[in-house]
Task: inverse folding
């Protein structure tokens, strides 16, 4: 892989400064947040080579369906077949490169290209090539349809999310997710994952924030800003009750030892039966690199996918997961509403901060800043993760 050069505006020497010990390090320079060229390079050199959150699976109806979406300029296509299996493909016809699906659509039989009507199954197989050998000749000698199906993108599902590895070169998804599963599982227990249910209501939140996606990660994984940005949250989950944690490779975040939303909001949701009783007020907030934010509590969990729309524009899409089927009943409707309202308030409070940091990246008076050796450990960990991959 080529080293970042002038076209990406970040030299190897500059990236090495990010890798220094936290007390000596400088953060990523402004170009990492403002350069369109770097944005594209980052997609191919970093995000494409690992597993990235693409979409929540509940956005794809439970029937044969094709859902187009754009990911950092790449046209992709999610399909669901009759057996319910989800797949991801490059959204392009194998014939002349036409974008295959322009709008979400039912797939009664085949996915048909609007240009020359080449048609594919939801599993990506090329099934029809009308007139390929001349009028009314739908086959031609030497053409093997099995070699010209849709180009698949490696994908995996976890916690209601669809992840993709665009390059096809990342380790197996289970290897990627194992450290996070292990850490969260220590709180939730073996049955915790199966106990979580996506909420039927009071469970969705979507925001568009005018900042580079990395600023949303950096802000989320540290608690340093709580007293000034989140006074309400800080009243029941105080800064002094938070501690940082760092995974060797794939995530970092903060743990609260005094999370009491249920008491502050007057909610009483069903709780995970295996969550340790002595840790009922513990909550954890990992940033799963590159673009997924997670929250784990005794009575609910949440996931946020950060979709980089432009170099300075990010969509934050959240789902809240409650415990067991009973938590989705009318009995707990007010509790779900209060939980969603609390998190909507927290994420809304962050907007001025991440947008202000994005605006500040236009100033030559700032070129990466410094880190608190104690409070900024997760943010520096993420900067190091990015810099190491940009260096190859």
Result:
């Amino acid at each position: 892989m080529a080293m970042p050069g002038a076209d990406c505006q970040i030299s190897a020497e500059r990236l090495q400064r990010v890798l220094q010990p936290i007390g000596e390090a400088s953060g990523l320079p402004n170009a990492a947040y403002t350069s369109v060229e770097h944005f594209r390079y980052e997609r191919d050199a970093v995000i494409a080579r690992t597993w990235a959150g693409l979409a929540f699976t509940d956005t794809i109806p439970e029937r044969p369906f094709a859902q187009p979406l754009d990911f950092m300029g790449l046209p992709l296509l999610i399909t669901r077949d009759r057996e319910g299996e989800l797949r991801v493909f490059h959204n392009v016809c194998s014939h002349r490169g036409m974008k295959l699906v322009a709008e979400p659509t039912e797939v009664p039989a085949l996915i048909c290209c609007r240009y020359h009507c080449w048609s594919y199954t939801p599993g990506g197989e090329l099934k029809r090539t009308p007139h390929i050998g001349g009028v009314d000749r739908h086959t031609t000698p030497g053409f093997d349809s099995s070699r010209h199906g849709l180009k698949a993108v490696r994908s995996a599902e976890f916690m209601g999310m669809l992840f993709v590895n665009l390059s096809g070169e990342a380790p197996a998804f289970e290897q990627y997710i194992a450290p996070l599963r292990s850490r969260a599982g220590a709180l939730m227990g073996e049955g915790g994952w199966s106990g979580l249910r996506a909420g039927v209501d009071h469970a969705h939140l979507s925001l568009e924030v005018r900042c580079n996606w990395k600023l949303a990660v950096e802000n989320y994984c540290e608690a340093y800003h709580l007293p000034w940005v989140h006074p309400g949250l800080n009243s029941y989950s105080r800064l002094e009750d938070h501690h940082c944690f760092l995974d060797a490779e794939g995530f970092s975040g903060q743990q609260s030892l005094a999370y009491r939303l249920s008491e502050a909001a007057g909610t009483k949701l069903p709780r995970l039966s295996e969550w340790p009783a002595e840790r009922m007020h513990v909550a954890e907030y990992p940033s799963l690199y590159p673009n997924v934010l997670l929250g784990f509590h005794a009575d609910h969990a949440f996931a946020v996918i950060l979709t980089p729309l432009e170099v300075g524009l990010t969509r934050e899409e959240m789902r809240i997961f409650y415990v067991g089927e009973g938590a989705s009943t009318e009995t707990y409707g007010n509790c779900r509403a209060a939980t969603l309202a609390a998190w909507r308030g927290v994420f809304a409070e962050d907007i001025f901060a991440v947008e202000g940091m994005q605006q500040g990246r236009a100033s030559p008076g700032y070129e990466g800043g410094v880190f608190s050796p104690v409070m900024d450990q997760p943010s520096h960990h993420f900067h190091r993760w990015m810099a190491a991959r940009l260096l190859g």
Q: What stands out?
A: Residues 1-7 have pLDDT under 50 and may be disordered.
